[in-house]
Amino acid sequence: MRRARLYRYQVPMDAGVVLRNQRLKSRIGLVVHLEQDDRTGEGEIAPLPGFSLESIDQAESIARLWLTQWAGGNEMSFDGVPPSVAFGLSCALAESDGRMPMSSCWQSVPLCTGDPDLLFDQLSCLPGRKIAKIKVGLYEPIRDSLLVNTLLEALDDLHLRLDANRAWTPDKAASFLRWLNPAVIDRIDFIEEPCGLPTQSLAFAAQSGIPIAWDESSREPGFTLEALPGVAAVIIKPTLTGSLAYCQQRIAGVHQAGMLAVVSSALESSLGLGQLSGLAQQLTPDAPPGLDTLSLMQAQVVRPWPASTLPLLDYADLSLIGVVES
Ligand SMILES: O=C(O)CCC(=O)c1ccccc1C(=O)O
Ligand SMILES: [Mg+2]
Questions:
Q1: The domain that contains 119 carries what CATH number?
Q2: What residues does Mg(2+) bind to (predicted)?
């Protein structure tokens, strides 16, 4: 017996969540619940506006077609299925086949908003190497340098990941560097996409000695996985990448090229974040994932993230939008 249920959730976001210059008022996604005889599996399909090429409505109709075929007993593939749909469906399938790693540590690199006291609290919960992430490039570069200096000078075992999301011109990147304390530079693990163009980011890495990581670039056509000088890591956002098998293959490729693969959130709900946590534990044990985005939402969905105090939406709180069975 195969049965699939498809649900839609809508969760309000915190007022300040802006993605690519567009305010994200609420997060809309799908939850798929599969049953195969006595085994079940769940997955989340949540295309991210401004990042995913597929819309939520397109994702929904493709998921429906796929699930109808699956429930009819067909052997299924993810060829041509958009990334968010392929990722969510493949996670649900892997769970129902017992192939999905379950999270046991629920770890994430904390996203630091600039309040050092808050960061100290978050870091005290992290076992092992102290590492946090800061978004840069939103204000003047000097403000970013001074914040990085302050945090790294205050905590001598802290390491930082920075994320500029391509915000800097080469001039701005240079002024960031000018105000940075040279003594703390070696505790910046990497900066994601400092400049508008990949070639400018590579030049920044060479000039500054700060390793860079590819995020946006790694999902652009024509990108090749190679460890260019100064490139330390590749960010993998599974919802923007594809099926579980494809993400695994991608991560293996990053490792083979000699770089760090870092699993990261595309603002999934607590359900998807929990699965990403388990995947990261299994596939990238040496690189703590970037999953600290749940606090941008006002509720959790179906499965709780243990440390979160947000209210939990149950299946009864979601809209059931489809059931297919064999
Ligand atoms: O990577 C993380 O630590 C958090 C996730 C994150 O930064 C992010 C989440 C959604 C869309 C874009 C981004 C980004 O990399 O800027
Ligand atoms: Mg980024």
A1: 3.20.20.120
A2: 163, 192, 215
Name the average pLDDT for the chain. 95
CB of 24 closer than 8 Å to CB of 13:
yes
Q: What is the CATH number of the domain that holds 98?
A: 3.30.390.10
Whether 214 and 262 share a structural domain: yes
The verdict on ipTM greater than 0.95 is yes
Range of 118's domain?
Answer: 111-296
Q: What angle do CA 195, 16, 114 make, to 5 degrees?
A: 65
User: Is the pLDDT reported for residue 114 higher than 80?
Assistant: no
Count of other CB atoms within 10 angstroms of residue 306: 11
Q: Pick the closest to residue 214 from 262, 174, 248, 253 (CA basis).
A: 262
Please identify every residue annotated as catalytic.
135, 237
304 is a domain residue: no
| Index of the ligand 1 atom closest to the CA of residue 161 | 3
Of all protein residues, whose CA lies closest to atom 5 belonging to ligand 1?
Answer: 265
Q: Annotation-wise, does 156 bind a ligand? A: no
pLDDT value for 125: 67
The whole-angstrom separation of Cα 247 and Cα 81 is: 14
